[in-house]
Specification:
The protein has about 575 residues and is an alpha/beta fold. The protein folds into three domains: about 5-90, Gyrase A, domain 2 (2-Layer Sandwich); about 125-275 and about 330-385, Rossmann fold, CATH 3.40.50.620; about 400-575, Orthogonal Bundle (Isoleucyl-tRNA Synthetase, Domain 1), CATH 1.10.730.10. The chain is built from 21 helices and 14 strands. The protein has a five-stranded parallel beta sheet, sandwiched between helices. Strands 1-3-2 form a three-stranded antiparallel beta sheet. α13 links the parallel β10 (about 340-345) and β11. α6 (about 170-180) crosses α8 (about 200-215) and α11 (about 270-290) packs across α12 (about 320-335). The two termini are about 30 Å apart.
Length: about 575
Amino acid sequence: MSVKTQTIINQIEKELLKFIEQNFEVKLEKINWETPPELEMGDLAFSCFELARELKQNPVEIATRIATNFKVENLVSKIKNIGPYVNLFFKKDIFCRDLISDVLDEKDNYGRGEKKIEKVMLEGFGQPNTHKAFHIGHLRNIFLSESMSNLLEFSGYQIIRANYYGDVGTHIATWLWYFINYVEDKELILKASKKNIDPELSRKLAEIYTLAKNKVEEVETAQAEISQILQRLESGDKEINKLWKLTAELSLADFRRIFKLLKVSFDKEFFESEVEKPGKKIVQELVDKKIAVESDGAMIVDLADYKLGVLLILKSDGTSLYATKDLALAVLKFNKYKIDRSLYVIDSRQDLYFKQIFKTLELMGFSQAKKCRQLSYGVVALQGGAMASRKGNIILAQDLYDKILDKVQTEISKRENVDFKDVNDVANKITLGALKFGMLKYTPESNITFDWESALKFEGDTGPYLQYTYARIGSIKNKNFKNQKIKASQIDFSLLSTIEEWEVIKAVSEFPQIISKATENYNPATLVNYLLSLSASFNKFYAKCPVAQAESDDLKLARLALIESVGVVLKNGLKILGVEVVGKM
């Protein structure tokens, strides 16, 4: 609710609690409000089951008694009971006036939560491994990270957005092994410019890794040779490290180009290479504190007492693992950045692993470990199964973006009075809208198959549909009310009396609660579904209730204020999801 409409509800609740105490001699702390399933059933409702248990009376009789005798002057127009529920109907003109004036006054801040002292670091944004492909699986991680960071920030939290690159490890050694021994034209990579990255670089790097994984299966001595390269890397061998740094920088430059293309940014970049040595020191500390023990030459943390199995933190040959580095990175976050909560956007296949990491951090004495949380999400599947770069059946993020962009540009170019500059600008916004919305509309935990053609439709549950709805609102205003200034105090909101108008008004009022719910549940899909429902309500309203051709100037102005408030909510909601609005489509 907006500030004023929430005040209305608070006042109703205060009066109702007083009424219950006086008439039933029961003191309740609060009313658990519910929203009736149909608009015709009221605006607020609460059940009398709790009271019935306290009083040992029939809940229907209690609801009837309250509905008959409870009154709230100037706030509620009607109260009735439906079975054991008491349903209240707002005085619509007061509710509309307070809501729309708040929305139009607050604009970009409508729905924003109060500032909180808690500092949160969210680690995600794809966390790509250098020397490997940047594919559509990374996109889901990136868009979930972006939208969750925005939700948390909009809700008032202090947010540090972080990316963590996998720039060391077995996959690097595997790539280098193949590059050194089997790539003939090395100059294509070695002479590439990191200042002017060729988009084809992603493909070249991915191809080398795929070929390397296949070659390993053919060469009997491959694993031993790769292990030797990994040890050379970790021991600081100058020659192999020079090649690693050069190729890693090219890979990182390409990743940053893609982030810019996606219009995604973050505050901090971490690298596995910077926490590798600190990680090994932490392993020794864990051994000294008897948190970790040796097992067949390797170092482990036995978490069987917590039903979490065994966490391997250092290999028997002394080389590091993901756990070696993840523990060091967590310690760095806690000590240097003084964060209160640490969130990890990681796919669901790592659920057990992160429970092990969090428990180990807790055993190390970090109180923040109890506020560590993995924001788990399902994999992005292709026709024929999940993506795996060793099989070479991945879809590059660049290829998917280009495919959608080409389709969008073609469609926009068919329209009249659109110059080339507009085509590029609008097409890029629609492309990103389709991509981001297409990934975010699903509950994070679900596995998805991304269908780019469906994601691009201008109707239905898509980003372009919402962008089109916003553009439609702008078009109505520009064509008919270009110089019209809206002042809520001068509008007769009692004229907004149809069920279609009230449905839109109620939807607009729910935006702050939706933000709160989506943030608490770490689920951007909650906001996605709300925006789709709001747009559907708006389009239903617009089909039944003309704005420019309204029966009177007063009604026209009231409806203009209503669609303006819808535009504010759509813009705010889409911005949180990382989707830019479009002025015209």
